[in-house]
């Protein structure tokens, strides 16, 4: 059945760049390939929770499986095997919906990012990682199979055993190899919503690395790091560890958040001064060097999800994310150089996290994670200053043999991307001829 296409703006989470495209919402796996559809370039999208342009396509047609302004979408559960924990669902199902279904049944996500409002399709296409990367690897490792539909109508069942090349190209393939219609995800058992939590204050990268080396048996580890303070407070932070509680407790569903960030703040509201105050308060909210206790999984994994649309804090110009990984060798010097470049720039980030990735291999040909230290932060967009800083951070990353994360990027150059991902040409063989993205154009054309 032919449908009218809409023309609302589809924003990524960073709200930059602003690009215009038609929307052609998909409600069923059979809706694609499009019949009587537009003859333009296409890109599937999920919840638009990527920060930059990996989910954007100027003057093309986006194929949302979920998202604002779309009722329904590809949001159905298909089957659940309580013995194996394998859930089969459509690609537009969000991780929040999986948790609502799975937690009361004693199951949890195998890997989760810092927001639960992403779709299964988006999680596969960016091969996302979480606080348990050092033990569980990426999301794709927990996806036994999925269906990929190409614009010529071919339906490819992908798994490590069947069409393994397509499986590997599509995990981390940034939506370019075709539309994922459904996927299986292997969930893990839990007996409680609680996380056994420890928070440890640290001072400097050396101490952060020592804590990471001593925590490899702990399932979830990540640190918040202060990217504003200098002098004796340079690179101070809080190292956060957690394990699922082994003590059985009621597995009740989460409450729906009701707080919505109401307005776009004025551009200058988030500045070095206000973020410096926030960082000092945040660092000092924990009084002792070490604190332990039980916390609910919601604030542990998703502190930012409590306020919907929090990206409006950055104003209408939006924000830039940066996430890189540097190999262990030279990583601590590289990260110190990066933190110094940030403090020297006069820009500030208050959502800065640092983590050591493990050496569990990623299944995707283009997956971002690699063994080493990863840093993720965001900056308000301020004329040329933030672009210059990002350019500097990308150069330091390159000099230290690291790479940057496409899901969080809006600025890396073609030369940088091709040096970070030398396998990109081989990957290009798998791109659907009708598919394209603003990111791919920027880094390859
Ligand atoms: C607050 C916050 C915290 C985050 N924390 C983390 C983190 O800890 N770790 C991490 O790895 N990432 C993190 N992210 C990034 C986020 O997890 C990824 O960008 C994720 O891919 C977004 O999923 P989405 O459903 O919104 O997809 P979109 O952003 O809409 O799309 C992402 C990519 O998936 C493709 N795609 C979407 N659906 C399909 C489909 N059905 N078939 C084929 N391709 C498809 C799109 O073409 C695009 O290339 C975070 C993002 C936010 C906003």
Report on this model:
- The chain has 445 residues and is an alpha+beta fold.
- The protein has a domain at 194-420: Alpha-Beta Plaits.
- It contains twelve helices and 20 strands.
- The chain has helices at 95-102, 120-125, 133-136, 164-170, 205-213, 272-285, 297-301, 331-345, 383-399, 414-420, 424-428, 438-444, and strands at 22-23, 42-45, 61-64, 77-81, 86-90, 107-108, 146-149, 155-158, 179-186, 188-189, 194-203, 220-225, 236-244, 259-260, 290-296, 307-308, 319-326, 353-357, 372-380, 403-404.
- The strands form five sheets. An eight-stranded antiparallel sheet has the order 15-11-13-12-18-19-17-20.
- The protein is globular and about 65 Å long.
- Residues 1-5 have low confidence and may be disordered.
- The site of flavin-adenine dinucleotide (FAD) has 32 residues, from strand 2, helix 2 and strand 9.
